Amino acid sequence: MAEQEGVIKFSFEFQKRENVPEVPWEVQAWRDLFVRYELIGQLPGRYDGFGFGNLSCRVGAAFSITATQTGGLKCLEDSDYALVDDWSLARNHLSASGVKEPSSESLTHAAIYDSDPGVQFVFHVHSPAIWQARQQLRLPETSAEIPYGTVLMAQTLKSLARELGPDGIIAMAGHEDGIISWSTTAVGAGSLIFKALHQQMS
Ligand SMILES: [Zn+2]
User: Fold this and answer.
1) Model confidence at 179: pLDDT above 80
2) 1 alpha carbon to ligand 1 midpoint, in Å?
3) What is the pLDDT of residues 143-174, one digit of tens each?
4) How many whole angstroms from 19 Cα to the centroid of ligand 1?
5) Residue 200: what are its φ and ψ, rounded to 5°?
6) How sure is the predictor about 88, in pLDDT bands with cuts at 50, 70 and 90?
7) Which of 68, 135, 168, 186 sits a CA distance of 20 to 30 A from 78?
8) pTM for the whole thing?
9) Which residues surround ligand 1, an ion (CB under 5 A)?
10) Which domain holds residue 181?
């Protein structure tokens, strides 16, 4: 099923504010690497030119996430992240604040944070190479039958992530090239993506 990248499918409340929390350097460093490998970005031939990929980290009871349509920016400032401080998978709703609105994939990240209190970092990238090799790599995956951005998808992700524990990687069969990883550390979440990328080459 074709679906459009970058379209927000949940309802949200957004409060504009200038004093956004500082984002840990690890998130920025991993983003630099993902941009170089075109796992995050905005490229003419991909997804009708929409930006793709987004990163988040837990901040107390909230999480900071890259703002919507920042894929094309080479370097991000703290103001390119929004703070998501409340969410409900059941209601397909969240509330956020910041200079810019949160990523269209924020509810997907929220589902992973809900799965285990130990999760501190969630990285979502788009990798045609890993996605196409997901079966050989035996990556856990969410069914292609579940439309992306629905309540059912968020709940499926949450229960699959819960089975996998505080570190994991999932291919989203219903979301073209979509890969999501998470961990208690940034290096843990980032390594799972590069491990899969390496394994599909060998
Ligand atoms: Zn995506």
Assistant:
1) yes
2) 14
3) 888 877 788 889 999 999 999 999 999 999 98
4) 27
5) -70, -15
6) very high
7) 168
8) 0.94
9) 178
10) 11-201
